[in-house]
Amino acid sequence: MSDTDVRHDDTAPPGRDAVTGGRNGTGGRRRRRGRGEQPMVPDAEFRSYYGRPILHKPTWAAADIAGYLVLGGLAGASSVLAAAAELTDRPALARTGKLGAAVAIGGSLYALIHDLGRPARFVNMLRVVKPSSPMNVGSWLLAGYGPQVAVAAATAVSGRLPRLGRVATLGAGLTGPAVAAYTGVLIADTAVPVWHDAYRELPFLFVGSAAGAAGGLGLIGTPLSQAAPARRAVLFGAALDIVATKRMHDRLGMVAEPLHTGTSGRLLRAAQALTVTGAVVGGLLGGRSRVAAVVGGLAALAGSACTRFGIFQAGITSAEDPKYTVVPQRARLDEPAR
Amino acid sequence: MSSNLSDLLSGDDPPGAGGYPDPAPRFGFFTDTSVCIGCKACEVACKEWNHVPDDGLDFTGMSYDNTGGLGADTWRHVAFIEQRKPLGDQRANAGVVDLGLPSFTKPGQAEDAERGEFRWLMSSDVCKHCTHAACLDVCPTGALFRTEFGTVVVQEDVCNGCGYCVPACPYGVIDQRKDDGRVWKCTLCYDRVGEGMTPACAQACPTESIQFGDLDELRERADQRLAQLHERGITDARLYGRDEDDGVGGAGAFFLLLDEPEVYGLPPDPVVTTRDLPSMWRHAGAAALTLVAGLAIGFLGGRGR
User: Fold this and answer.
1) Per-residue pLDDT tens digits for A189-243
2) Which of A13, A49, A53, A176 could form a disulfide with A76 if both were Cys (CB 3.0 to 4.6 A apart)?
3) A128 touching B, CB under 8 A?
4) CA distance B255 to chain A (A)
5) pTM of the model
6) Chain A neighbours among B 215-244 (CB < 8 Å)?
7) Do A233 and A217 contact (CB within 8 A), yes or no?
8) Residue B156 at interface with chain A, using a CB cutoff of 8 Å
9) B290 touches chain A (CB under 8 A)
10) Burial B98-120 (b: 16+ CB within 10 A, else e)
């Protein structure tokens, strides 16, 4: 029991803080903090309604939606690799990209539909064309992209209709970048502080992460003789990922806190370590040994997954704590007065 | 071009909203919290009229508020805040007439002790029916729409439960009903208003803290009420959601508050997330091109190396 005005004795029910008056009485500060974590920025003073969140956190399940962010990026960038490999006569790399994209986009569709409150109504996504809704735009993108990926993979496996397969491969390669990039807008177009405030960096972080994942898959599934573009994709992806992450940390101020604390902080640190490992082992050494290529490729894939799950979790954390909503908005209001 | 783009990205904002050629006057709520007595009649009336299911009888242990906040099954929520502060111009040391009776010390009147007065802030929160409504903008199915009264309503036969509107709302109003999968929120009693009736909460409010009507009239009335309170020395009084230049273009349901909005669980400076959407799409476009360029360069080197 703390500073209750009602009863001071031991018979008071636990957790009953009927505090009157005062700024602290309305739940301004938060006392809980993860074990062994040092605050990077001193906690800002702010007022709230008994410490309750202002926003509703997303109803999305991490396995579905963060999972979709991983798979959608992997698919989109794999299609680009597949199309370029097709044009430059690297059949093994093209095949890996086509099959990888098909499996990943299949998983994406499953996750997206599974996460709906009313899965049977998923086709309602295509009821309207609505540029103000990134989810609607994404649905149309997937509706155009998915079938091309499926045809490209089916023709690659069966060996039939090679010309149709080529058209589908190139079409998927052209649509793929949009599929990989739009997910940054998808989550940024919310009131979730970390996601919204990072709207400039998220698309770049996500395409970097997508390039790393697709390159990683290319390293795993392609003989050394054709895997050079996949190695460079891993390096390119890692560089973009690291630069975007750094910029995001620098620009977001106190809202960046969930990016380096708690579960999301751990995931994002793991993501950076795995991404660098993937770049060094897969990207730099992967040309010399198949083992290094596979290990590096796996690290790059895992790094991409940790990035998406970390960003997803950071958003949830920032929605759950009113601090990340109130402090920046209050600062914005008080600024002209100073 | 830019005006066309912004039309596309926010085409459902009033006036002229949602393709109504001759829209009715925009309706809204003005909730004057200075006369709210915390009776929760609005919560009950809303539940009864709209068949909103119960969402558990929880004891929050924080105040007389056991509702907690707005959600799929709470479309009106009465907040209770207890503060060690006099209400308005109430005197802390009102003259006490000595009647020669045995004296009692008033609470907190002892030497060096803080005077014991405090005030209750009570406020009935509701969906703001924003001018620029993020929930409506991001809804991928068109289930959320702008009515002819300028309000924002979910079509439950269309909603597929994607949940996108939930984190999009800067106030934390709309939410998903778990057992049902769809999202729900205040409709500003679309059915009643269509019949020329007052929404259930405003009808039930015994102190006229909740006022329903033509938004322009409500704004005028609110300005008068604010001036009146300021005249009486209640300088804490402020309007919230009244300003048409705020981040959501002004709220269809706005408030007179007696403290900072965050004390009531309201965001101090909410901004519709889609305001930045054109810039978001530009960044995504640049990122997509970066991806193509970055991967293509990887194919330029010689084979094998």
Assistant:
1) 999 999 999 999 999 999 999 999 999 999 999 999 999 999 999 999 999 999 9
2) A176
3) yes
4) 16
5) 0.89
6) none
7) no
8) no
9) yes
10) eeeeeeeeeeeeeeeeeeebbbb
